[in-house]
Every structure is written in structure tokens, then in C-alpha cells.
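Sample A.
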Amino acid sequence: MTKQSFLRILQYNIRKSLRIQESFLIDREVREFDIVAIQKQDCNNNDLQSFSAAHNFFHLVKNSSSQSRTCIYVNKHLRLDQWIVETAESNICSIRILTCNTDNETQMLRLLNVYNSCTLSTTFTEKSSIISHLNELLKNDCKQLIVEDFNLHHSHWEKRRCFTRHTMTDTLLNIITNVRLKLLLKSGTITREAHNQFTTIDLVFSSEKIQFMTRKCKIRIDLHQRLNHLSIITELCLQTISVQLST
């Protein structure tokens, strides 16, 4: 067993492509990440664990619903006693990971993977939406990291390119403010390219303490799978215990 110096998290919207999801997980670079958070997965596939790459290298966390849009792959090099499943709903998955900081102090990190379905209406404010549900799930007294595709536009993360603003972003920003979350991904970073439009809808938020432990949070273009979304890596200065996997 060895200690890893950093916790490495990768997120990607695979746009319901089973072929892309399989290809993505087979990638040697992807298999090195501790956590892979998938958004807009192929919800019609009820046996994602059957992928040879996933089965050999990852534990799968997902909801059994046929409408599930999120899942989390936890690398098998992390010890099983280091993490637990917290939530496995259709559009939200969350786990808790036991880590330690550079001073060797134990830190429990809460990781949430969220997908908010796209709506064409910029004034949609349905109280049953996943954004409203976040208010019940997010806590202001713990170290947490939220990786998500909210499908919402706002100048807070899109800067000058934001031509449309969704009403639901006001709800989201109120929630984020109340639990004191910080935007980790640099504002204005292009995360989706489609129809000559360059937008920022895939985001990363964290609690303040996690913000100061962040080593990097950026786009990884080299892991691009010819989709209009780009993958995002987040690297935290948190140590985990890894085990040697048999080859």
C-alpha cells in the first residue's frame, strides 16, 4: 500500500453514448484517475459494470433507475474502507472519501456528481427540479466538491459570452451563497462547443477549505472523445491510500 499525494477527479458528459463511455474508460490516462464522474450517461444500459475497463479498474456507483443520468466510477486502487456511497439518485450521485491533508490530518471529502436536464425555457423554475433539490443535499458544515452539468447560463461563470440567462440560476446562486461554495473552474472556460456556440455549462464548485487545497481545475483537451463537451480534471492536495492492483 502506498500514499498518493493528490486526489484526482475527472468529469465528462458523454451525451448518452455507450460507445463513447466505453472508449473513454478504456483510455489508459482515464484509468489513472481516482474518481471518474460521468454525466448524461446512457440510462438505457442497465449493466454499465459489464464494461471490461470498468469492471477491472473501477467500482461503479449509480442509481438502478432507467432514467439515471449520473454515475461515479471509483478506482479500485483506492481502499474499500476509504469511501462510502452516500446518495445514488437519478440525477445526483455522491460519495464520501476519507483522505488526509499535507499535515496528515484526517479529512472527509464529500463528492457530488450532478446533472440538470436541459430546458429550452429560460424562465423555468420548477420546484421539483434538481437545482431545488440541491438545497436539501448541500451542507455548509463539511468539505465538499460538486462536479456538474447544470445546463444553465450565467455571467458568473460565462463572462461576456453569456447571451441568455436562466431564471433557475438565481436559485442556484442563492444555494451556492448560502452554503458558501466557490467556483473552482476559471470563469469563462469553454466546456462545450456546438453549432458555433462556445459555452460554460460544466462546472466545479467546492467549499472554501477545499478551494485552498486545489492544485488544479481545468479542461483536458487531450481526453476529448469527439463530443461537444470537454472533460474537466480537478486535482486536490489530499492524500489517499492506494493498493497495488494485479495486472
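Sample B.
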Amino acid sequence: MQWLALTAITVAAVGADQLTKYVVTSHLRLDDGLHVAGPFWIHHVRNSGIAFGLLAGAAPVVVVLTGAAVASMLVYFARSGARHPVLPIALGLVIGGSVSNLLDRIRLGYLSADFRAHAAAVQNDARRDSVTRRAGFSVATVAGADMVEPFV
């Protein structure tokens, strides 16, 4: 049941992320933005790097690193997934975002959407996904600290 939940959430996250990027690239010119709500904006950009512009133009390296990260998350889930009901949700969202970005990097060589809060809080998809990953693992670990073993 845990694997089914992980798969469903991952597929939903990939679908939502790809749909968002499709809407952004179809309706916004490059470098244009759209106010979403409150301080949040979404921008049409081309980001070939990862957080803070690191590895810009090195898509093959980023693809390998992302693939390794996804594989390690799946191993972690296989070892710990049944121990906490929040873990399939947290990891499903993180893996879904990672897989969606991986698909874009393989297909296009870059990411195409940029989510910002007041233009500085979140700089790009890679950084947002990094923050999401840390938050997801933190929630799962704190919520079931006695049930989730550290991945060694």
C-alpha cells in the first residue's frame, strides 16, 4: 500500500509540475512573470543550472546527480516507507518534482518555470525543490522521529 501511495503522489506531482510549466511556456514570453497570489509570482525563464546557478550548462552532470538522488530516495523509502504514513506523501512530492525536472533537463536541457516570493525568497525551481526536499524529510522525520531510521 505504501508503494502505491508513493507512486500515485509521484505521478500527480510530475503531472502538476509539467502542466504548470506548459501553461507558463505557452502563455508567458521569456522573462515575463505572472502574479499568482499575495507575494507569489511565476516567471518564464530558462535555467540550465541548479541552485544559485551552479552547474549552469552542465545538464549531463545534473541529470546523473538527479538520477542518483532519486535512486537514493527510493532506497530510503524501501527501507523506511512502511514506518510512517507521511513518508509516501513527502517523498512522493520530492521525487515527483525531481523526476519532472529531470524530464525537462533531458528533453530541453533546462527548466522553464521560476517561482518567486517577492523576487528574492525563492530564486528558481532547483532551489525551491531543494527547500521542498529538506522540508519533506524534516516533516517525516519530526512527525515520526521514533519510527524513521536515518538512512546510512
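B remarks: Residues 2-143 form one domain. The helical segments are 2-27, 59-80, 87-107, 125-143.
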